Amino acid sequence: MAIAVTPLHEHIGAEIAGLDLSRPLTPATVKELWQAIDRYAVLVFHDQQITDEQLRDFAGRFGELEIGRSAAAGGRRRLAFPEIGDISNLDEDSQVRARDDRRRLDSLGNRLWHTDASYMPVPVVLGMLFAVTVPPPSPFGAGETEFADMRAAYDALTDAQKQAIEGLVVEHDVFWSRGQIGFTEFAPGEREKYPPSRQRLVRRHPGSGRKTLYLSAHASHIVGMPRPEGRLLLNDLTEHAIQRQFVYSHTWRPGDLVIWDNRDTMHRGRPHDEMQPRDLRRATTLDVGSTLDEAA
Asked: Would you say the pTM of this structure is higher than 0.85?
């Protein structure tokens, strides 16, 4: 059965119906979904019932899976599969983490506009997030995830602005992004394990052929430019890219699965009631090369 695609926003996002993601996908369906990803950048599936194993297997149809920073650190985890990231406010015993819990404070960096793992030499491609438990809203948000279309943001620049940023290289650093919210309590050896990486500021998306801004809270400075000047430029570009006309905001409900392409989007989480459980599970696919090796 062919999938049904309903656009959710002028630029970004589409709802996909007609698929049970707990069942194996045919090659033809995987191809259809890739085409939809290349067109809409963010795909939303409602009313799914999948286990962590099924999420892992589904995500694995789209590329090699990342083992994230937390799972790579080792130790006891709440979730069995290292390929499944624990995007929750729950500890290893499924209890809500304390307000001063180190893991919770680190994860608050996800509320900054960012692109996943842009601080890695070879960054990631697709993010997939599945909602198990959704908490009530807070006065400042209901735990939404917002996605910015970096293709539309690039298109809206003037020709002179596009020319000025073409070819620029940016250094990305997870310690820079976490430092912006005052979190510096990294475990010994993490700095050595995750050194800064350089990425193109302007990329050409291989699926759509469109040029896109590659920005993130991890973006520390522009290589070869005085740091204050480069950081101001990155700030101006980010403010441009997150204008509301470029942003789709997803309000979660249990059973939602959302796929986004990190190569042409930024995203951020919004606040929620921290006293209630919030349980989302993530799978992420790896890219195959550095952005510096890509054709502009």
From this structure: yes
**How confident is the model over 233-290, as pLDDT tens digits?**
999 999 999 999 999 999 999 999 999 999 999 999 999 999 999 999 999 999 999 9
Those residues with Cβ within 8 angstroms of residue 287's Cβ, 6 or more apart along the chain or in another chain: 63, 122, 123, 124, 125, 263
Rounded distance, CA 209 to CA 72, Å?
34
> What does the block give as tokens for 32?
């259809």
Q: What is the DSSP string of 73-138?
A: T-S--SSS-TTSEEEESB-TTSPBPPTT-HHHHHHGGGGS-B-TTTTSSS-EEEEEEEEEE-PPPB
Nearest to 219 by CA among 85, 103, 117: 117
Domain ranges within the chain, ordered by starting residue = 4-290
Q: Class assignment of domain 4-290?
A: alpha beta
188 burial via Cβ count (<10 Å: 0-12, 13-18, 19+)? exposed
For the record, the structure tokens of 82 come out as 């290292």
Distance, CA of 60 to chain centre:
17
Tokens matching residue 131: 């909602």
CB 47 within 8 A of CB 76: no
Q: How many residues belong to the chain?
A: 296
